[in-house]
Design a protein that fits this description.
This protein is α+β, with helices and mostly antiparallel strands and 171 residues long. It contains 6 helices and 5 strands. A hairpin with a 2-residue loop joins strand 1 and strand 2. The chain starts with a strand and ends with a strand.
């Protein structure tokens, strides 16, 4: 079964249709590129795939259990923490726990937090974070806000890959 099927998708903003009877099938392992002028609907199509907006008409069918991740065009200004903490936020179940654990100073790690990490299999995610940091040649202790734009993008890409998505959207 395909990852995603768009069937006769219609979407308008105002009087002008942006997407008119669009059909698309995305298969596993497939790589697609959307090319078009500004305002032609590329980002809107990605928002439909992310389910942040709904079509006016038509149907979008997702494979059961699909994991979708997106790397946004803009680097969020509000991200504070070190590299490993920011990457950790890419995991829905353990991300915030690991973020809190990494951000605690020195040896003042709370027993309650460590227990929650154990219960959520967070140490497996911690190992995945270490692997991504190594593959992307990042400094885990570097402060995200002090990184160059290129390094920030690498951190955010690692964050997007942490969830091991079936579909990765690069806008």
């Amino acid at each position: 079964m395909p990852l995603v099927q768009l069937r006769n998708i219609c979407l308008s903003f105002g009087d002008q249709p942006l997407l008119d009877e669009v059909n698309l099938v995305i298969e596993e392992k497939e790589k697609l590129a959307l090319v078009g002028r500004n305002g032609s609907g590329k980002s809107t199509l990605l928002k439909l795939l992310q389910q942040t907006i709904q079509p006016d008409d038509g149907e979008i069918v997702f494979r059961d259990g699909i994991i979708i991740s997106k790397l946004h065009q803009e680097i969020p200004a509000e991200l504070n923490g070190d590299v490993r903490s920011i990457i950790a936020l890419g995991n829905r179940s353990s991300g915030q726990l690991l973020f809190n654990y990494y951000m605690q100073q020195g040896n003042q790690k709370s027993e309650k937090l460590q227990q929650q990490l154990n219960e959520n299999d967070s140490w497996r995610v911690d190992q995945q974070i270490k692997t991504l940091i190594s593959k992307f040649d990042l400094n885990s202790q570097a402060i995200f806000s002090q990184l160059s734009g290129g390094l920030k993008r690498r951190v955010l890409l690692a964050q997007s890959l942490l969830s091991e998505p079936d579909l990765l959207l690069l806008d």
